[in-house]
Write a structure and sequence with these properties.
The chain is mainly β. Helix content is 10%, strand content 40%. The protein has ten helices and 53 strands. Strands 30, 31, 32, 33, 34, 35, 36, 37, 38, 39 and 40 form an eleven-stranded mixed beta sheet that branches. Strands 43-42-41-46-47-44-45 form a seven-stranded mixed beta sheet, with no helix packed on it. Strands 3-2-1-5-6-4 form a six-stranded mixed beta sheet, covered by helices on one side. A hairpin with a 6-residue loop joins strand 34 (685-690) and strand 35. Helix 1 (8-21) packs across helix 9 (230-240), helix 3 (94-104) runs parallel beside helix 9 and helix 6 (164-174) crosses helix 8 (202-210). It is flat. Keywords: Signal. This is S-layer homology domain-containing protein. InterPro entries: Cell_Envelope_Struct_Comp, SLH_dom.
């Protein structure tokens, strides 16, 4: 390489692009220095001739902010380590900075050991660094006269930490900008510590600032004596590579011409080079500092590979746009000499192809040239990065398809008469079908209705129309019949098909039972009999096991408000009068569902209550009682309270029930002690509990739904919760618990931080549902949707219909336009099913310390009277700087941070 001192435009590009991103040169040494861990602050860092390991240095972990740059330069040989360590957080020494600069400029070939002996006596450096420093003096990167005045009484010249001003000079000179810098020496830098910058350094600082290379630190200071870390300097050199024409060792930049398992092919200067890749190969992109979670390299994109001996040690996508051009036309025929003829409009054109050209059908599947039929519309794709403009792909856009393949059913559309498949290659393709389509499983012909998404199949296409589909496994189907018997171990079921004979089927584990009028029905609720058994529809899975049993046609009748006439405990015969005083006789058995004022009802416990006059609700079929409920409460809407007549009326279903009271009944309301009847109003949802003789009101419970945050869960089923700043507790062992998707869960599956909707009967929780809670940043919003950037970095567009609540600055607003881009929000469903956004409060603070015991942070007080300096951390608090996720323990004293809070609890910390 020829070091280009005489190309000002080139130098300006290098300066402005590289240092604008890297040399922010901010507080305490540099902006990025605060990213280093305490372990990285060792003062023993030294560059030696120990080569870097094949992977990262042991002190550069995956996800480290400078991992990309250190990893690349290490594999290029620009960075060398010391016993496998890089020590990225150490202040870079002057001899290290000079050495890295020489390697970066690829000037190591100019090193001369003999000239090293002529170093000035005050410029004492390690033996390894002497030739580098001597060459830097020759190139004018450092000035002998300036360095002669350096104080070396406390440390040698080489071991002296490179200051911000010194690094600025080194960089400006390396870019041949010294003349421009000196022309500005007489101008003030404008920084508050301008007097601390040397007279002959002001011009370098002015130029660096004007070119947006350097920025000030807090208090509008430049801090000229502040240090620069080794990781920062590595980042500068790495970014600078993209703007130079230097040929670096083991570095190849070109266009991807081939991608195979374990291999990537790159066209570099007209020659294809193959590189081996594996699961540990790191992938990066030009515009991101963090490692890509998975390879995302596409054909014909511009890529840089660092590697040796055909092995890729580093892959970076420079330009993710495929460099191809397309020509569309009508296929005419194939020609000799590996060419095809097509009509483009009215013009006949020919295009060549070779063994690397891909032939693809309209569904993205590989085909042969002979599979393309005349008059098919095709697209010829040619690369644009070489003079040959080779044909890389010939794609059929529409044409006749004849093929057989295997795959999985993705979608069946009876309206469009199409079936979509995901074939064996993982590509989605869609074909139409006609009335002659044959669907088969083994020796059985199936109907189109039995073809389900997810089924594994083989299929045949002729003239672009589906001809046959063969299932490789059974499909779900439904049959009807009369239920005859459930096996003793509840593993088999016997039924009589409609118009057929008896059949036995195995039951799947926990089959679903659906009976109209019975909630959470089970196998024990089914009526089995050879002649009078339930009429059922059975759902059979692909293994021919029963997964669902739905009772159809059962003539189950309800009877509400019946009065007991008598009950015989020996014969289990119950005689009652309905509300019209008409007598009925029922038989109870071990399958009868029981309900009375207990959590574990038994028939023996019920029998003691079946005295004359007791009021019951029943369901029955014929003379068999399916359920018996002793009326001990009424649930409904409060429709009347007459304190003179001492009655309470409740609309339950379509019936108004009025119950008297002799003494004022107790009133229970969640989170309200000492409640009374005056706290109730007409229209409230209530539960009225009766006395032991069912003749008076004992208690009125207000039915409410509250949204609460779980603080802790105890093993005995007690849950501590909070709403805003109020904390309470209750037991959920008798409540119905469901997760975000409505699935049944146990109390042990609740965790701190869960948001839950709790349905209370008075103070007793009857149902608990976990509410999906999304914490994110608003990136766009319109009248019907909100796009959010989640804490994991993913983006999600949420359509919003129905009622909306935006809680912002203490006000509740009802339109999405109340949100603004940049708002941090908590998105949930409120208790009334409206979509709710709670906008977080924002505070800018300076970090002080972290209290791990109290799980809180302390910030610097703004004045002696400031008492708002201690903040609790929310569960899973998101701490980050830009797109880099941090731990709260990594924050340092005086770090500038932005806090995002809900109810004074921190949900997000953004480090500046």
């Amino acid at each position: 390489m020829t070091f280009k001192y005489n190309n000002p435009s080139h130098s300006k590009k290098v300066v402005s692009a590289v240092l604008a991103g890297m040399m922010a040169l901010s507080a305490g040494g540099a902006a990025m220095a605060a990213e280093s861990t305490e372990a990285e602050q060792s003062q023993t860092a030294a560059v030696s001739n120990t080569t870097a390991p094949a992977g990262l240095f042991s002190d550069i972990k995956v996800g480290y902010w400078a991992e990309k740059h250190v990893y690349k330069l290490a594999n290029q040989g620009i960075l060398l380590g010391n016993n496998g360590l890089f020590r990225p957080g150490d202040a870079v020494t002057q001899q290290e900075a000079v050495t890295m600069a020489i390697r970066f400029m690829n000037q190591e070939g100019q090193l001369n050991d003999s000239t090293a002996t002529a170093l000035p006596t005050n410029m004492e450096v390690g033996n390894y660094f002497k030739p580098y420093v001597a060459l830097a003096l020759q190139l004018g990167l450092i000035d002998k006269t300036e360095e002669a005045t350096v104080d070396v009484s406390k440390t040698t010249w080489g071991q002296k930490p490179a200051s911000r001003e010194w690094i600025t000079k080194l960089l400006i000179r390396s870019l041949n900008k010294e003349a421009e810098a000196k022309a500005q020496n007489s101008q003030s830098t404008g920084f508050a510590d301008d007097a601390s910058i040397s007279t002959d350094g002001k011009g370098y600082v002015n130029l660096a600032v004007s070119l947006e290379l350097a920025k000030g630190v807090e208090g509008n200071k430049f801090n000229p004596t502040g240090s620069v870390t080794r990781a920062q300097l590595a980042t500068f050199f790495s970014r600078g590579e993209a703007l130079t024409d230097t040929a670096y060792l083991n570095t190849y930049t070109g266009y991807v011409t081939g991608l195979k398992d374990g291999q990537i092919s790159l066209l570099v200067d007209g020659k294809v080079t193959n590189f081996t890749v594996n699961s540990s190969t790191p992938y990066f992109t030009k515009d991101s500092e963090t490692r890509a979670t998975e390879p995302n390299v596409q054909l014909y994109t511009k890529v840089q590979v660092v590697g040796s001996a055909g092995n890729a040690a580093y892959v970076e996508v420079i330009d993710a746009t495929p460099q191809v051009e397309s020509v569309e036309g009508t296929f005419a025929r194939s020609l000799s000499g590996n060419k095809i003829g097509i009509f483009v409009g009215e013009n006949y054109e020919t295009y060549g192809y070779d063994e690397a050209t891909a032939f693809i059908d309209q569904n993205g599947n590989a085909i042969k040239l002979t599979d393309i039929t005349a008059d098919s519309i095709i697209e010829v794709q040619r690369e644009t990065f070489s003079a040959d403009k080779k044909t890389v792909a010939i794609r059929v856009k529409s044409g006749i398809v004849n093929k057989s393949d295997s795959g999985v059913i993705a979608e069946v559309s009876t309206t469009g008469k199409t079936i979509k498949f995901t074939n064996a290659a993982g590509t989605t393709e869609q074909f139409t079908y006609g009335d002659n389509l044959i669907i088969r499983y083994q020796d059985r012909i199936l109907s189109l209705a039995e073809l389900k998404a997810g089924s594994t199949v083989k299929y045949t296409v002729k003239d672009s129309v589906l001809q046959s589909i063969e299932l490789s496994q059974g499909v779900e189907q439904s049959v009807r019949g009369t239920l005859v018997e459930i096996g003793g171990n509840q593993s088999t079921l016997t039924f009589k098909r409609e118009g057929g004979s008896l059949e036995a089927k195995l039951l799947a584990e926990n089959p679903e039972v659906v009976i109209n009028g019975i909630q959470d029905a089970s196998l024990s609720d089914l009526i089995t009999d050879a002649t009078n058994g339930d009429q059922v529809e059975l759902t059979l899975n692909g293994e021919d096991r029963v997964t669902r049993i739905q009772v159809i046609g059962r003539q189950m009748e309800p009877m509400n408000g019946a009065s007991v006439v008598s009950y015989n405990s020996k014969t289990k015969v119950l005689t009652v009068l309905d509300s019209n005083k008409k007598p009925f006789v029922f038989t109870l058995d071990d399958k009868t569902k029981l309900d009375y004022n207990t959590t574990k009802p038994t028939l023996a416990g019920l029998e003691s209550l079946l005295n004359e006059g007791r009021k019951l609700d029943l369901t029955y079929v014929g003379t068999r009682a399916l359920s018996v409920k002793v009326i001990y409460k009424y649930e409904g809407t409060l429709s009347g309270m007459d304190t003179n007549k001492k009655t309470i009326s409740v609309l339950s279903g379509n019936q108004t029930i009025t119950v008297p009271y002799s003494t004022v009944p107790a009133v229970e309301i969640y989170n309200k002690s000492g409640a009374s009847l005056s706290d109730l109003k007409i229209g409230d949802k209530v539960t009225v509990t009766l006395g032991s003789n069912q003749d008076y009101v004992q208690k009125v419970s207000l039915n409410t739904v509250a949204q609460l945050e779980v603080v802790s869960v105890e093993t005995n089923g007690r849950v501590r919760v909070k709403s805003d700043s109020l904390t309470s507790q209750f037991y959920v062992d008798q409540a119905v618990l469901t997760g975000e998707s409505g699935q049944s869960i146990t109390a042990s599956q609740l965790t701190a931080g869960n948001l839950i909707n709790v349905t209370f009967e008075g103070t007793t929780p009857k149902a608990v549902q976990v509410v999906k809670r999304t914490l994110a940043e608003v990136t766009s919003v319109d009248a019907t949707s909100v796009t959010l950037k989640l804490f994991n970095g993913q983006s999600e567009t949420v359509p919003v219909s129905g009622a909306v609540k935006v809680i912002k600055s203490g006000s509740t607003l009802t339109t999405l336009n109340s949100l603004t881009v940049g708002d941090r929000v908590e998105m949930t469903k409120d208790t009334d099913n409206s979509t709710r956004f709670r906008v977080m409060t924002i505070m800018s603070k300076q970090f002080w310390s972290y209290d791990a015991v109290g799980n809180q942070i302390l910030v610097k007080r703004e004045s002696t009277s400031d008492t708002n300096y201690r903040f609790a951390l929310g569960t899973g608090v998101f701490v980050h700087q830009g797109d880099n996720t941090l731990s709260v323990q990594s924050l340092k004293d005086n770090d500038n941070i932005v806090l995002y809070l809900l109810n004074n609890v921190i949900m997000e910390i953004q480090k500046q």
